[in-house]
Amino acid sequence: MVLRMSRMLLKTLRDAPADAETASHKLLVRAGYVRRTSAGVWTWLPLGKRVLDNVSRVVREEMDAIGGQEVLLPALLPREPYETTGRADEYGDLLFQLKDRKGAEYVLGPTHEEIFTQVVKEQATSYKDLPVILYQIQTKYRDEARPRSGVLRGREFQMKDAYSFDTDDAGLANSYRLHREAYVRIFERLGFDYRIVSAVSGAMGGSASEEFLAPAAAGEDTFVDCPKCDYAANTEAVTAVVPPVPHVEHPPVEELDTPDTPTIETLAAHLGVPASATLKNLLVKIDGEVTAVGVPGDREVDLGKLAEQLAPATVELVTAEDFEGRPELVRGYIGPQGRAFRYLADPRIAEGTAWITGANKPGRHARNVVCGRDFTVDRYLDVVVVEPGDPCPKCGAGLEIGRAIEIGHIFQLGRKYTDAFTLDVLGKEGKPVRVTMGSYGIGISRAVAALAEQTSDEHGLCWPREVAPADVHIVAAGKAAQTELALELADRLHAAGVRVLVDDRTGVSPGVKFTDAELIGVPTIVVAGRRAAEGVVELKDRRTGEREEVPVAEALTRLT
Ligand code: ATP
Ligand code: MG
Ligand code: MG
Ligand code: MG
């Protein structure tokens, strides 16, 4: 069907929402792709749904190509399986929890390892039933601390999650390889600039894991990349390979000469970081309550802001116990521009975790506060610093550091979940064999925003063809003859299998239509304008801006 803008539910906006900080958030809202329903919860409007479906289609095709079988599990899940694996606690506040009218406890699925394991336990009994790859494209729920950046980090979002089940380690390695290769094809086809990096497994558990990162300034992950060899890692995973610097003795806070609230300088000295440092993933206990500053999903906080925010309360470092059930808080870095710091915490906290200090309590900005009297710090940590140019742990070349968006994550889980649910199948020797598992995620809705981050320009969205809501956007400048020509061309292109969006709105100036066409970002723009009467249209490449006038017949052959 030809999409006619005169009939579509589509309203472009001149201004971006006041709270929008990233290009994708601004542009997807302004171009009428998505609409905010509540914090981190989004409605996909007709143009947005088409892009979302295009991403899903590519993912489906490549998952099917490696033998994945599509299923659909519920989002409303009993809480119990998540208790069995301990993840109900591990996810903590991230988990949406609810009760039915009888008081039975449910969660809204944040990811489905537990339920898939149960499904396979029921359906597979013998080694002959394996290996198997199951996947779904489904709505996930996570009560993110700071839903921001539009659909980049939603509290309700679309994920493709896949799970592999094998009888032995070689099988798992093979399933993992198949997914890794499928992901390469998916992200190539979608038009991403991406890197594959070593990652930490976090709440998922398991051994090996890698992330697919899309470099972008709006990203919330920091990664190191070797320009010479294939080494690349999320800074969350870097400590494993970068030798720690010697232990640094920090001065106790009592010795700091801070009159009222701490200053940038006293804080910097206190933390042992430069005054220009920006802070991320900070935890602090205020009056015994753990509060987070810059948890994943938040903006970085600079020292000045932190100094302002320190409240007249008892502030202490967070201990290992405080991290229990809050794995999303157990990691992080402090980084001035271009630097990534890693904090190795108290040995009771596993290696590769983070610490802490700082506070963020709105409404607690009272003065006459004295560091040392009004708050104390009871533990300091070793610091590992990775800076641009640091030697690559593999080849020694100077490392580069960049920001990126996590678009995919693949895990070799091993037997964490199959142990929890005793998922065995009958092996070749007639004895039960414990199944081994992998899990593989792609943020479908996030991919839309991440692509917008990477491809948009000052005029608006600028989609790679495979995901664009249409192939061609025909603008009828306004006069009846122009509209007639535009609609005729639209019909003929459509008949030839081209996806067409035609701006046949009346009472909208040509200038507004051209601006909207740039904003909406379909790869080819055709204008039926000044020379429509002669049967001549203008072809414009949205990305390069190149334009040329051609007879309609030629436009047809070129676009089909
Ligand atoms: P992040 O580090 O950004 O919080 P994650 O590591 O928690 O992501 P996974 O549990 O690995 O996410 O989930 C698989 C994929 O789902 C991620 O790679 C990402 O693309 C997507 N995803 C995760 N959380 C969100 C979210 N809140 N909104 C949109 N997509 C998300
Ligand atoms: Mg997360
Ligand atoms: Mg992550
Ligand atoms: Mg992840």
Structural class: alpha+beta
- Helix % is 25-40%
General form: globular
**Roughly how many Å is the radius of gyration?**
27 Å
Ligand identities: adenosine-5'-triphosphate, magnesium ion
- Quaternary: single chain
Q: What does the average pLDDT come to?
A: 80
> What is the CA-CA span between the terminal residues?
16 Å
**Helical segment tally?**
15
Poorly predicted segments: 239-261, 280-300, 310-367, 369-384
Counting DSSP E segments of at least 2 residues, the number of strands comes to 29
Strand content: 25-35%
Largest sheet: 9 strands, mixed
Subunit structure: Homodimer.
Protein name: Proline--tRNA ligase
GO molecular function: proline-tRNA ligase activity
Keywords: Aminoacyl-tRNA synthetase, ATP-binding, Cytoplasm, Ligase, Nucleotide-binding, Protein biosynthesis
